[in-house]
Every structure is written in C-alpha cells, then in structure tokens.
Design goal:
EC number: 3.4.24.-
Transmembrane segments: 96-120
GO molecular function, one term: peptidase activity
Cofactor: Zn(2+)
Radius of gyration: 27 Å
Membrane topology: Multi-pass membrane protein
Amino acid sequence: MSLSDIPAFLVALALLIAIHEWGHYRVARACGVKVLRFSIGFGRVLWRRVGRNGTEFTLSALPLGGYVRMLDERDGPVAPAEREQAFSQRPLRQRAAIVAAGPLANWLLAVLLFAAVAWIGSEVPKAVLGTPPAGSLAERAGLHAGDWVRATSPDNQQWQDVDSLSDLQSAVARAQALGESLHLTVSDAQGHGSRSVHLETERLAGRAPDARLFMDIGLLPLADPVLSQVTAGGPGAAAGLMAGDRVLSVDGQLVPDSAFLRDAIRRSHDGQQPRTMVWRVERAGQVVELKPTPRLADDGGRKVARLDILPASKAERVFVSYGFADGLWRGLGQSWDMAATTVRLLGRMLVGEASVKNLGGPLAIADAAGQSARAGLVPYLEFLARISLGLAVLNLLPLPMLDGGHLMYHLFEGLSGRPVSEWWQRQLQRAGALILVLMMALAFTNDIASRLTGWH
C-alpha cells in the first residue's frame, strides 16, 4: 500500500460504514426506537452535532468502523416515559429488522453501484484470447489465439453472456475457487462460427489466487508482441532490447502475439540453466537480430526464465453500456452471484477445500482502492460495489460480534420463546471475538505474504 492509496481507501471505508449504520438508524427510527448516537469511527470525537430527535451524530478519530447506540434496558436504567422507545421493548420482528438493516443497506448500495457501472458504461478489453501457455488449461481445452469467448456456463445448460474480458476472468475465478469446471462458447475473432469448450478449472481447486494460477489457467488477452517496457540493468536491456521493439520471431518461430512471447521467455531454460534465445525484432522499420539470455527466478517452487521486460497488454477494446432496466437487472444479478460465491467460498475454506489465501486484508483492500481510483470513476464505483457487498456478507456471518450473530439470537428467541441467557451471550461473545481476531490475523498475514512474494 502506498500513501497515494490512503485517501481512496478512507473515502471507501467512511462511505460504506456510513451506509451500513444509516440502515440500522433509519429502521430503528421507523420502529420508534430512540437512537442515542450515530458514530462513524471510534475514539476521540472530532466532530459532533445533535439532531432534532436528540440523536448525537459524531465523527471520531479512528475511522475503522462505526456504531448506532440505541436506548436499551440492557445497557442501563431507562426512564419510564422513554421505555416504549427502548430497543429491548420492541417486538422480535422489529428488533430483527433493525439488526438486518445494516447489511441490507450495504447490499442495496452494491446493487445500485453495479447498476451505475452498467448505465455509465466503459471501454473494456474484448474477450479475445492470445496464445495459451504450454500445458495450461486453455491449451488442453483446445483454445487458440484469436478465439473470442461469447458466453460461459458452469453446467453447460444455463449460459451467461460475456461482454468483456473482465466478465470472463470473473467467471473463471469463481469456477476455480468453487472447484467447478466451466464451459465456454467460442467463436473466431470476427464472431463467425461457434463451438463449445470445456475448461477443467476444477483441476486447480484449492490453489491460491496468484500470478502462477493465472498462467496455469492460460486465458490471456490477445495483444501485439510489442515491448512496452525494458528494465534498465536487466538481461533484456543487456541484450539490446528496447521499448517499442516488435518481436517477429524467437528461435525461428513466428511470434503471433504477446502471450506467445511471454510463454516463450518463461520456458527458455534447460533445468537449472538459462538458454540463450535468438530474437528477430522490428525497430524503426529495420529488422534487428538479438540474442538475449534470461535470468532464472523461482515461481512457486518451479524455475521460470525472465528478461525483465514487459510485453504489451493492450488488447482490443469495446464500449459496453446498458439501458436502465438491463443495468438494474445486471446489478441485481452481479450482487446475488457474488454474494452466493463468497458464501460458498468461505464454506470451502472452512473445510479445507479452498485456499485461505483467498482472504484479503486491509492492505489488499487499500491497494485495490488506490488502483481503481487511479483507473477512473467506473472502476472505483465497481470497487465500492464489491467491498459493500463483501461487508454485507461478512456482517451476516453467524458470529456473535456481528449482525448475523444477533440475528441468530433472535432466531433462537423466536423458536424457543425465550431470549438467549446473559451467560451464554458472554461465552458466545468471547468465542466470536476470538474467531474474528483469527480471521483478521490470517487476512493480514496473507497481505504481508503477498508483498514478500512480490518483492522476491
């Protein structure tokens, strides 16, 4: 996380917390419950205002959460005149509605943000594929450079249209995380012909979501084999490669796209020894022959060759937008699919069938906030939608410290006719706090590990 990521992260955090607490607040007021304080953040109060209904609105120094404090007999004596306004005196269905309103507000925000992204529209990479890496799932499935993925299906029956490369990548990531295969409908780059392809993403179930996994799946965008960057002092620069070079061939093989070039570089070694390659590149209208020798690097326990260059990744782009009804329907569908996938993924992590490295922490979220904000309004709105939905799902987990835990208390009360005893609430509260601490520690560890891997 860089300092430039912090403002985008704090704006996102404040907005999503405010929406969450606003949900609790509005439903509490609608049910006649007196709200004593509406706070964004914890600790020292930086700003305070008292509303007409007596609610104290505050902004505190530590913006890592928030709360709505309601009049409640469990927290202390309540004046007889205000007893009817106490949370503890409201009917069970109203108390449950107040608790559920926070996550529901985050879910509704996610729907509207996803819909706004669809309404505004954006220029996105087309789902036309480059050359699959050797041995990847895409190569085994029979995909080729220039294939255009038009739709995906987990069961070969219900199909979802693919409007962009990000749609395809999301579907593939979901299938891999859930241990499912994925069927693709593919045409050529001009949209002619159609065939069905089976991508065996279930083979990679349980793998951590890292760069190596991305290469092993092999769905890379089609882009010209032009070098966009050559790192000074690296083996590519030492061999005379320059940004802007168009690679024509490597070891006598024509290079059709940047994906083919990346794979050729990675495989240019014999065991523990890098192998010198013969490149023909076009530079300023002239053909130049160069002989770069890569360095070897460890990539998840296996050796890959690197030239410290960056082939172009600028794929063909299309503008995608939706009308009002279609955009709203897309927002509903995206939020539902993402929530269901998150719940299933958490279940698979719990039983050891999915990698716990899927769990990201505050550093990963801050990175994503900064990157999306720099990319523009639409990417940032989509980031906010994803985080808002994640916050909704997280808060509905049946842990006593969260809204979902309180809903479990209300469910027990509804089924048994009596509330959970104070002794049990204390024990469950301790257990829930411990689980949350462990989850946060794991997420933070994943953040640190991903950065150490990147530095290596």
